[in-house]
Amino acid sequence: MSATAPSAAAPLHATRQRFVPDEFFGQQPSSTSALPDPSPLIENLTRAVIEILAGARDLEQISRWVTDDVYRHLLKRVVLSARARHATGRAVTRPHFSIGSISQFEPRDGAVEAVVIVHNRVRTRAVALRLEGLDSRWRATAINVL
Fold first, then answer.
1. pTM summary value
2. Which has the higher per-residue pLDDT, 117 or 91?
3. Rounded to an integer, what is the distance from CA 34 to the centroid of its chain?
4. How much is the pLDDT for 6?
5. Within a 10 A sphere around the Cβ of 22, how many other Cβ atoms?
6. Cβ contacts of residue 50 below 8 Å, gap of 6+?
7. Residue-level pLDDT at 11
8. Domains located in the chain, CATH noted
9. Of 48, 52, 141, 146, which sits most exposed with the smallest number of CB within 10 A?
10. pLDDT of 19
11. Which of 66, 27, 75, 29 has its CA nearest to residue 46?
12. How many CB atoms lie within 10 A of CB 46?
C-alpha cells in the first residue's frame, strides 16, 4: 500500500496552482477614471525635481510619488549635481524658473505621459514624466530631465 499512496497523492498535488504573492499583495494597477486629474501632480513633480537637482530640496520629499527605480535614478543625478557644485565651488541656491508649456498624452488606460518645458534665465529644459495609476494613486514610473 505504501507504493500506491504517493502515486495517488501526486495528481492532486500536480493540479494545484502555485501561489503568487504579487497578485494579491503587490502594486495593483488603477484605471484613469478612478484617479484624480494628473495635471497638478505633473507640474508639482516637475518643480520638485528641478529643485532637487539644484540641491534646494530633499529627494525624500517626493519618495511617495515615485517608484523605486525613479528614486534610484534621481539619487544618482543628485549625487552628480552635488559633486559638480562642490568642484566648482558654487553654493546651493533655490533655482528661479517658470513652467512653460505642458504636453500630456494618455497612451493607455491608467498611464499618462507628459513633457514639461521649464525656462530659467540661462536655458530652457524639458522634463519628461510617465505616471501610472498604482494602488489608487498616480506614481511616476519615469522622470527624465533633458
1. 0.78
2. 117
3. 19
4. 52
5. 8
6. 95, 97, 118, 125, 127, 145
7. 56
8. 27-145 (3.10.450.50)
9. 146
10. 57
11. 66
12. 25
83-105 pLDDT, tens digit each: 999 999 988 989 999 999 999 99
Lookup result for grid cell 498616480:
138
Helix axes 39-54 and 68-88, enclosed angle (nearest 10): 40
Query: Three-state SS across the chain?
Result: CCCHHHHHHHHHHHCCCCCCHHHHHCCCECCHHHCCCCHHHHHHHHHHHHHHHHCCCCHHHHHHHECHHHHHHHHHHHHHHHHHHHHHCCCCCCCCEEEEEEEEEEEECCEEEEEEEEEECCCEEEEEEEEEEECCEEEEEEEEEC
**Radius of gyration, CA atoms only, the chain:** 23
| Mean pLDDT of the 107-135 span | 95
The three grid cell numbers given for residue 30, joined into one nine-digit string: 488603477
Q: Which amino acid is at 125?
A: R
User: Could you tell me the three cell numbers for 105?
Assistant: 498624452
Place of cell 524658473: 97
Amino acid letter, residue 55: G
